[in-house]
Write a structure and sequence with these properties.
With 134 residues, the chain is mainly α. The chain has one domain: lambda repressor-like DNA-binding domains (434 Repressor (Amino-terminal Domain)), CATH 1.10.260. It is built from 6 helices and no strands. Helix 2 crosses helix 3.
């Protein structure tokens, strides 16, 4: 039995991909780096990374700019419906356990990013505290 949510026509649908997945897919399809996109949007690289990691979402004005730069519709970015990327031509059927693992990997990656940011903040505070003691 083929899971309709994983066929080529539904590849970037709301059920199979997140906003960040669609954003990253559209950016990569244009051969654009996160850094290049951040410069074109006038936002920090960290902001683009946060959007692609689904840690935050752009405001309406940046969403409109993003859709224009990526040459996709706002609706496609938000829901996977409308003018956007075509998915792979062959059908991709993933077992539930594989999809679960992929979701877990994405969550761990996001958590690692958050913890790395926290570690950097703590290191800066420690350096400042040590300088003040000298």
């Amino acid at each position: 039995m083929i899971d309709d949510a994983m066929t080529g026509t539904e590849w970037y649908s709301e059920q199979t991909a997140t906003f960040g997945d669609r954003m990253a897919g559209a950016r990569e399809a244009l051969g654009m780096t996160q850094s290049e996109l951040s410069k074109r949007l006038g936002v920090k690289l960290k902001t683009v990374q946060s959007w692609e990691d689904d840690l935050s979402e752009p405001r309406a004005n940046k969403l409109q700019m993003l859709a224009g730069i990526l040459n996709v519709s706002i609706m496609w970015l938000l829901t996977g419906e409308g003018d956007g990327l075509d998915g792979p031509t062959e059908e991709a059927v993933l077992p539930d356990d594989v999809r679960t693992m992929l979701t877990d990997i994405r969550l761990v990656k996001s958590e690692m990013h958050r913890l790395t940011e926290r570690l950097g903040t703590l290191e800066r505070k420690l350096r400042t505290a040590l300088k003040e003691q000298v």
